[in-house]
Amino acid sequence: PFREEGVFSLLCGKCRFVIFHFCKLFSISVHLQTDKTRTCLLEDGTSYRGSVSVSAYGHSCLRWFKFEWTSEAAKGLGPHNYCRNPDQSLTPWCRVKRGTRIVRELCNISKCPVPKPPAPPAVDTELTCGEMPSQRMNKIVGGAMTSIESQPWVAAIFHRRSGFGCGGSLIAPCWVLTAAHCFPDGENTKIRHLSVYLGKSYINDTDADREQKFTVEQMIIHPKYNNSYGSYNNDIALLKIKSQDGKCAVRTPSVRTVCLPPHLTMLPPGVECSIAGFGKETWHFSQYLKQAKVTLLSESDCKRDPTYARDLTSNMFCAASPTWSTDSCQGDSGGPLVCEVSGRMFVFGVVSWGEGCAKQDKPGVYTRVTNYNNWIAMKTGLPAYAAGVMYPTK
Ligand code: 4AZ
């Protein structure tokens, strides 16, 4: 805090030595810091009203009243020896004694910190999706526990009555991609009973610093999703999310968007991708987010099992681990299968179905996301996101 001599010095405009001191006593009780005065250096320091009283050479400043007979309170002068800039010099200065001479010397006043404007909340755009997380792999059946920062696009979808239900992936700040079968009541689902969390590593614990909570503003189930034969064809859905203050996902280390690959793009069999979710490990849902590596299977490999041969459509693909030890499972549904392409993560699959979990010759089945780019573009109104513009062209 600093003392503003202004008011009383002004009253004492033509006072001399004694009265100055009298005024000074009074001015002690006046503690004002106006917007225009400060105790650090701003520009040429005209507004400096701090109490540095040595020159840059370390010489003691002499009191102003010895030289300035008229008190110039507006310029911060008065019965003191603080550095001031009453005459638009380079910086605040004062008079000092050098031998028998009295000279002006500039003072070294520390600069005012430049106030930074608050950064606007950062949001991912279609150009910043799928950035490789800072924390890589550090169990889904098999696999390993991970923190949400490794898969920051993973969403957890809760139902008011049944609790945790499904996974999802953040594909744009307001849009979560998930599976249609997550909503058994279909279009009759009461969206006010749904909540979506991003940035969540523990299903039953809250970490307010990392989580973002949303309600569902809109639920769009693929119109051709049809489970009447017990097969999950077109198992894809979109949720438009909104936080309590009406906003969408804010970009943080624990909340990021994943990229969509372009229409009809698919990686060849054998490529290793990863799945993530809070699904069952054995009998119980995992308390923690888990991720696992799985390998893409060819259609013919997937159709070896007669059930798969019957139910697998061109809107699906399969993935499994070579040893059948890791797989997605109940509760992972709706969550992402992501593959790295040129250092970015792309969501190729949505966890959909499978016969059991991690059983030999019973791979996990994933919705083929790249059959739905046009539908996603149309429903979200975000053609650039849906086009997969970050996918390398060669
Ligand atoms: C399910 O019940 C489920 N192993 C999801 C994925 C798989 C099996 C079941 C794949 O939601």
TrEMBL record:
Intracellular or extracellular location(s): Secreted, Extracellular space
Coiled coil: none
Descriptive protein name: trypsin
GO MF entries: serine-type endopeptidase activity
Domain Peptidase S1: from-to ranges: 140-381
EC number(s) on file: 3.4.21.4
GO cellular component, one term: extracellular space
A Pfam family the protein falls into: Kringle
UniProt domain Kringle: residue ranges: 39-112
Catalytic reaction annotation: Preferential cleavage: Arg-|-Xaa, Lys-|-Xaa
Any one of the GO BP annotations: regulation of cell adhesion mediated by integrin
Gene source species: Myripristis murdjan (pinecone soldierfish)
